[in-house]
Design goal:
- The protein is 0% helix and 50% strand.
- By secondary structure, the chain is mainly β.
- The chain has one domain (2-127).
- Strands 1, 2, 4, 5, 6, 9 and 10 form a seven-stranded antiparallel β-sheet that branches.
- Strand 4 and strand 5 form a beta hairpin.
- It comes from Rugosimonospora acidiphila.
- Residues 2-107 form the Putative glycogen debranching enzyme N-terminal domain.
- InterPro entries: GDE_N_bis.
Length: 147
């Protein structure tokens, strides 16, 4: 099993499996997921402010959210392969023949919910000023180019 991550305005993780044996492999791969809305953009602690946290499975993704006084961030977790989605993670059922490969891409995307809809965090005009956000890391597609 190999796992590769790309972190930028959320993150993407590739999970890859290979059967190098001579027998069929049947696997159940579970990926746990959760979100932590610890602070608001202005630095306030959210754990004790009375806001409402929620999680649900919606539209082929797990949605984690927080809402209080108009501040409404969400994080979605989804995959490019069929999986059983539950509020605490994803489960893949994998059947690998000898010399067969399998992979799945997991995507974690932060958004802000506003009256005009769900806006990706990176698309907000002030996204780069909140918390001194670092530059994006090298892409998974930039093999060997990072120094």
């Amino acid at each position: 099993m190999v796992r590769l991550r790309e972190v930028s305005d959320g993150f993407r993780e590739m999970v890859m499996m290979s059967n190098r044996g001579t027998k069929l492999l049947e696997l159940c791969i579970q990926v746990q997921a959760d979100a932590d809305f610890a602070r608001s953009p202005d630095g306030r602690e959210l754990s004790t402010d009375g806001g409402a946290r929620y999680r649900r499975v919606d539209n082929e993704a797990i949605v984690f959210g927080y809402e209080r006084n108009g501040f409404h961030p969400e994080t979605t977790v989804s995959a490019n392969r069929p999986a059983l989605l539950e509020c605490d993670g994803l489960t893949f059922t994998v059947r690998l023949e000898p010399r067969e490969d399998w992979s799945a891409e997991l995507r974690v995307e932060p958004v802000i919910v506003r009256s005009e809809g769900r806006i990706p965090l990176a698309a907000l005009p002030d996204a780069h000023s909140v918390g001194g956000r670092p530059e994006a890391s090298p892409s998974l597609d930039d093999e060997g180019e990072a120094s």
